[in-house]
Amino acid sequence: MKRIFKSIFLLAITSSLVVSCGGAEKGKKGAISGNAAEKVYIAPGEHDSHYAFISGGFSGQLAVYGLPSGRLFRVIPVFSQDPEKGYGYSEETKPMLMTSHGLIPWGDSHHPDISQTAGSVDGRWVFINENNTPRIARISLETFETEEIIEIPNSAGNHSSSFVTENTEYVVAGTRFAVPFPQKDMPISEMKGNFKGALTFLSVDKEEGHMDIAFQLRMPGFNYDLSHPGRGKSHGWFFFSTYNTEESNTLMEVNASQNDKDFIAAINWKKIEEYVANGGGTKVPANYAHNTWNDDEHTAKTVMEDEVLVIEPSEVPGAIFFLPTAKSPHGCDVDPTGEYIIGNGKLAAQMTIHSFTKMLKAIEDKAFDGDAYGIPIIKFDAVNYGTLEQPGLGPLHTEFDTRGNGYTTFFISSEVVKWNIKDLKIIDRHPVYYSVGHLMIPGGNSQTPDDKYLVAMNKITKDRYLPTGPEVCQSAQLFDISGEKMELLLDFPTIGEPHYAAGIAADKIAANSVKIFRLEDNKHPYAVQNEAETKVVRKGKEVHIYMSMIRSHFSPDNIEGVKVGDKVYFHVTNLEQDYDVPHGISMIGAQTSELLIMPGRTTTFTWEPKQVGVWPFYCTDFCSALHQEMQGYIRVSPASSNIEISYTLDGDVPGEEEEL
Amino acid sequence: MKKSKVLMIIGSLLILGLFAFPLWNITLEAPQYPIPLGMDIHINKFSDTHEFDIKNINLMNHYVGMQYIPETIPEFKIFPIVIGFMAALGIIFGFIGKYKLYLVWFILISLLGIAGMYDFYLWEYDYGHNLDPNAIMIFKNPDGSVMGFQPPLFGSKDILNFTAHSYPRTGAYFMFVGILLTFIAFFVGKKEAKKK
Q1: A501 and A526 share one domain
Q2: What local confidence, expressed as pLDDT, does residue A324 receive?
Q3: Which of A128, A181, A445, A492 has the highest count of CB atoms within 10 angstroms of its CB?
């Protein structure tokens, strides 16, 4: 009897294997081989091996995932308000979203890039650009919070950003929509020759990471699409892809796609840096916001900057060259050795691979084919290493492994293609679902890619998940690239649009992650160190509540003397000094968000009561067994009332208990 | 110098280790605390095992009405004097070299040790039983009496969602070894005296 059961069991297993193999061969839905689940399975309580920072695209934020599980850990608010975290609503964080146009509540985040030391990702900061209102943000990887946002003047469509050089000397910003530089009132039709494209180099402070605009190059009015730094032998150079070298200003899908070749701009930033150090360039009036967060004061401040150092390409001969590259290249990628510069000609049937060594020689030999606005165009054959013919349709972006291979996304043919750079031979291709944009290999923009995983970020999802009405989820796909063939392991949904990503081994970040903010280091002007310091102070029509929160009460929690027409500031300090004990606070009728306050931090929201009554506030984050009891009342009297401010906790005025 | 003298002096010196190392430790484990909360007891202070542990123990304990662990207690003034005095006395006895004095010292410190443990027990009892009558949560024993939360004097014990561990630390081991050496010094000294 036992035997019979055994053979039936075996038969069942065998047939299921046959079925799943059959599915795999068909390619589409069941393309996951038997052990893929095991490869992405992270047991409960275990940790992923890598962090993936995936841009939220039009959500304006940056999302943090674990690899290989694809689990979402946190959405870091960067360029968009986030009521859940109070970001962009609290008095302390509003300055982070200030620009020369005022407070901008939304942004379009694009290309995260992790800081580097000696050509490897170091896990200190991640930079990300905002495309719509040109800005670059720096996010701390100790607090996973946005620490700095700087607006880029004279630019529009800040797209070829925010990539860092191999020692994080600079992070760059580039203009995708050529505009008058400086802005002025002029006919759109006179664009050609009159619009410009600013390429901006921001210096990064070695210790604190503070960014400053070091210089802006006033380049011809092309569209600068993407960029990557030289590395190793090509360190000191930066490469930007261009399209619309036609300088068209209307029906661009046609008119910007006429030239058979556009350019990759090669920029010797070391040479320009030298020029600047020797007093080169012109200080030009500008107006842009520079927002910095201070972790001691738990507050951001905005400084409006009023000038920028501008450099005309003609001022630094021998520093800027154009490399002809097949039609409207999108990604402009440099391999880990720094030798190959790859133009992903999105409207071409081939990929252009340039050689850095050949480029230097061509410059030395003056192997030029004319110039564009005074910038020498290097002869195609003099710089080109070769072309990858018929690799697929619509190449967008290439990243690399440490074995000499490139991995390129093809938007139109919806696939990832693995190819050998030296041999210009295709090794493997794998469909993605659907229409992949960018891809990411952890450490991809460095000399040392950590090449076990590849994440493909798709623009279209269609039928891959349960439908959710007309708007379906966005999605990324994880591949194992450790073998000869790429293996699809996992689909996982993402927030916003998974536009671009940066990844890093978890051990480079996890140990430095901050657990709490030290209360004794809290220098917020409205902070309290203990309950005895809590109070309520009236200043004309403003009422300032110095409030504390600790398991499981607020102090004070009964406040009277507030009147209709007052502006009430809740300055709330979380007195906890324990890991993962945030408290929240919300007030009925407050036209702002809740606050979610980490241990040791002070945050402020405002409330302008419009109705007489007794109104409750409460803790919004389930903090403890007594969370439901963590609440208080504020009495609001008519504007004409002469009730004085008073406040208590358990019947006593905080801080006066001992004297009684 | 005679062997017994050396043992006596070293033994007396070793109890000075209490000035450098904690005497005792109480650690609280709970599901929500993958890194347990802990408090080291020195002869002159309480200290956190990990920064802010005592603050967090207090926060946990206020739910059941336990008092806050005080910043300081009178014993912290007395203990260092007693230990300093006993070490000095032991060294003097060692130099005098009379083995009977070693035994006197041994008995004296043993009595002081027992008194210290008893004092610790009394504090623990009070800490675990002197609860705020308005406590948020009041737990009753099966016989209807109010449940206490006294940590064990020595060993491990389950208290509600916590497992409490109470064990000696480095300072205590210095003391035990020191006292043991003085006890051995007594027998060695006795032998040496007989030989004469």
Answers
A1: no
A2: 97
A3: A128
- pLDDT above 70 for A1: no
What pLDDT does B162 receive? 93
Question: 């939360």: which residue's tokens?
Answer: B149
Question: What is the nearest CA distance from A577 to chain B, expressed in angstroms?
Answer: 6
Which residues of chain B make contact with A551, given a CB cutoff of 8 A? Answer: 59
Q: A551 and B59 in contact by Cβ < 8 A?
A: yes
The parent domain of residue A352 ranges over 54-512
From chain A, the residues in CB contact with B136 under 8 A are 626
Quote the tokens at residue A584: 């929240």
User: Which residues in chain A have their CB less than 8 angstroms from residue B35's CB?
Assistant: 579
**What are the two backbone dihedrals, phi and then psi, of residue B29, each rounded to the nearest 5 degrees?**
-105, 140
Whether A157 and A259 have beta carbons less than 8 Å apart is answered as: no
- For residue B56, the distance in angstroms to the closest alpha carbon of chain A comes to 7
Do A262 and A226 reside in the same domain of the chain? yes
Is the backbone of residue A651 left (phi > 0), alpha (psi -120 to 50) or beta? Answer: left
- DSSP-based three-state secondary structure for A591: coil
In this prediction, residue A350 carries a pLDDT of 87
Tell me the residues of chain A between 475 and 534 that have a Cβ less than 8 Å away from chain B: 516
Closest Cα of chain B to A47: distance in Å? 15
Q: Are residues A381 and A402 in the same domain?
A: yes
Least CB-CB distance to B63: which of A516, A577, A625? A625
How many contacts does A have with B, using Cβ atoms within 8 A? Answer: 16
Q: Dump pLDDT digits (tens) for A194-253.
A: 999 999 999 999 999 999 999 999 999 999 999 999 999 999 999 999 999 999 999 999
For residue A625, the chain B residues in CB contact (below 8 A) are: 63
Which residue, of A493, A512, A531, is where some domain finishes? A512
Residue that the structure tokens 């030296």 belong to: A422
| Backbone phi and psi for residue A100, each to the nearest 5 degrees, phi listed first | -65, -15
Q: Do B55 and A577 touch (CB under 8 A)?
A: yes
Return d(Cα B101, Cα B90) in angstroms, integer. 9
CATH number for A635: 2.60.40.420
- Residues B146-150: what's their mean pLDDT? 91
Closest Cα in chain A to B136: A626
Give the closest-approach CA distance of B132 to chain A in angstroms: 15
Q: Where are the domains of chain B?
A: 3-190
- My answer on whether A229 and A328 are in the same domain is yes
Q: Based on the fold, state whether residues A469 and A533 are members of the same structural domain.
A: no
A373-401 pLDDT, tens digit each: 999 999 999 999 999 998 999 999 999 99
- For residues A272-281, b (16+ Cβ closer than 10 Å) or e, as one string? bbebbeeeeb
- Tally of structural domains, chain A: 2
The residue from A492, A512, A532 where one domain ends is A512
- Is residue A556 reached through a cis peptide bond, with omega within 30 degrees of 0 on the bond before it? yes
Give the tens place of pLDDT for each residue, A476-531. 999 999 999 999 999 999 999 999 999 999 999 999 999 999 999 999 999 999 99
In a domain, A12, yes or no: no
Residue A613 sits in the same domain as residue A483:
no
Q: Is residue A44 part of a domain?
A: no
Residue A455 included in any domain: yes
The residues facing B88 across adjacent strands are none
Label residue B195 by pLDDT band (50, 70, 90). confident
